[in-house]
Write the C-alpha cells for this entry.
Amino acid sequence: MSLKRLAVAVMVSVCVFATHATAQKNELSGLVGRNFISDQAITGSTLSDNKLRFGNGLSFEVNYARRVMNAGLLSSRLKSRSYSIPTKTCTLQQPIECRRATDPTS
C-alpha cells in the first residue's frame, strides 16, 4: 500500500469516527507519568561534585472539558486542567542553607 493510500485511509477513518464523538457533552481524561530532569552543573562552585541532581518524579494530570456551544463540525468548550508532581526531589553533595524570599536578612 502506498503512503498516499494509507494517508487517505487514515483521514477517512478519522472523519467517520469524528461524527460519533460529537454526541459527547463532557470529557474527562487522566494521565499518570514520570518526569525526568537531567543533572545540572553549578558554574562557579568550589565543590568537588558540583552537580545538582533531580530525582525522577511521578506526575498526575486530570483534564475536564464541557461543550458549551455546538455548530455542526465546530464547537466551543470550557476546559479545566490540574497537574501535580508530588514526589520530586533535588539533591547536592553538601547541604545548602536556603532562605525564604520574604526573609529580611537575605
Observations:
- The chain is about 20% helix and 40% strand.
- The radius of gyration is 24 Å.
